[in-house]
């Protein structure tokens, strides 16, 4: 197992791993691997868009050991758990709107001291402004029609200068009838007027009709 | 720069023009829960007012407030936020946030969640008992092929298993073999009774939380609509044309993507009003409108007007 170009992410034979922050516990049934006295959790690219973008070759997204991450659309915490492995000395503010899946996220946060679970609608950041900190990284994975608008709103409010932000776009939730490439083009346009676009990757074959955008807060 | 006032889940903090903490006021656990809804709505809270009294000149408030105040400027500047956020009190900040979230989960409960769960259980039970019944009937068919053709109730199949049926054709199957399937058929009959109990329970619950929807749609269809919409709130806030097509998503997307014919109704086809109508499309549209109206009345705690809604609907079809 080797450290790759992404801090805290290890690679072995085209498989990704993160070092388990809560040893002995698998979060979603992923294999646990012991090596050199440490325990690693396999990171499944078919279940996590961040893992698939890393395999597709996205440059480092800015999540380091002590990063503060604002994670929008945390769901049950599959990807959140790996982010929490990586920023072991940082904080992940995990925002999720649906109470049913939130309970699972809440229980995950009990076992992982760097996750702060927040039950809120990411479309209304003013309602949780007092509950989060300024972030080094904003990560968003929300299947909503206005997901770009939500992303811009949150990144503008919470992303530090020179901070990086990742947007996962599901083309079908923006417009089912439109060609994904065309939808991604429009997203790209909307993002470049607010941020500096660092990279853009589609996630095939891991996810269908999905793309990730990596941007930087260009305010100097 | 003047003063900066910043409120988070731990308390209210006032910084002077050098960025030093000038005054602060922490929240107790009780206060935190009490102020939380006010902070979300962007209202000024008492500790903020208290700290403001000790200031003179211009104050920058870091965050959102609805009401403007003299000498106070609202700002959502990221640099200030980065400077003043409570990352230092990480553990406390996390615990406070967790307490609020736990409370939020409790508050988010409403009885339509139980209705959705129950209707999904009913549908699943029906699915399973039907599949199992087919199996048992295939077995009965082995020794009494004539008897089975019209049976669709576990109790009827059980009758044949127990009493036997006259048959001129079929395998001579021993009682020992039949007994195993008798047990299974009994189990299915019991499951069927459980299903009926659940159906009554759905109806009773809906009578309390959504009498209008119950009256217009009936218990099972109404509950399925709530389940498809995701909640009573979502059913009430969606356009009625969406209600009309709930359950016909596949056909709808096929229509949008490939230009096939647009579906006229989703699961509301199960309603007798649509079933028996000459023009199903028109009936579906009228019914969906009334269903939507009913859900809105229920969600906003209006009176039970379901009978009037049904009357209006029928009058408009004529």
Could you explain the architecture of this structure?
- The complex is a heterodimer of chains A (220) and B (318).
- Chain A has 6 helices and 12 strands.
- Chain A has helices at residues 49-55, 78-86, 99-111, 147-158, 171-174, 180-192, and strands at 2-3, 9-12, 15-19, 32-35, 38-43, 68-72, 91-96, 115-119, 135-140, 159-170, 196-202, 210-216.
- Chain A has a 7-stranded mixed β-sheet, sandwiched between helices. Chain A has a 5-stranded antiparallel β-sheet with strand order 1-2-3-5-4, covered by helices on one side.
- The longest helix of chain A has 13 residues, at 99-111.
- Chain A is globular, with a radius of gyration of 16 Å.
- By secondary structure, chain B is α/β, with parallel strands linked by helices.
- In chain B, α1 (29-41) packs across α4, α5 packs parallel to α6 (154-163) and α14 (280-299) runs antiparallel to α15.
- At the A-B interface, α3, β8, α4 and β10 of A face α3, α4 and α12 of B.
Question: Briefly, what is this?
Answer:
The complex is a heterodimer of chains A (220) and B (318). With 220 residues, chain A is α/β, with parallel strands linked by helices.
Defining key terms:
heterodimer; A: 220 residues; alpha/beta; Rossmann fold; seven-stranded mixed sheet; five-stranded antiparallel sheet; 6 helices; B: 318 residues; five-stranded mixed sheet; 5 strands
Which secondary structure elements does this structure contain, and how are they paired or packed?
The complex is a heterodimer of chains A (about 220) and B (about 325).
Chain A: E1 2-3, E2 9-12, E3 15-19, E4 32-35, E5 38-43, H1 49-55, E6 68-72, H2 78-86, E7 91-96, H3 99-111, E8 115-119, E9 135-140, H4 147-158, E10 159-170, H5 171-174, H6 180-192, E11 196-202, E12 210-216
Parallel strand pairs in A: 6-7, 6-9, 7-8, 9-10
Antiparallel strand pairs in A: 1-2, 2-3, 3-5, 4-5, 10-12, 11-12
Chain B: E1 3-8, E2 11-15, E3 21-26, H1 29-41, H2 46-53, E4 59-62, E5 72-75, H3 78-84, H4 90-107, H5 112-143, H6 154-163, H7 175-209, H8 211-217, H9 219-229, H10 232-237, H11 240-245, H12 249-258, H13 272-275, H14 280-299, H15 306-317
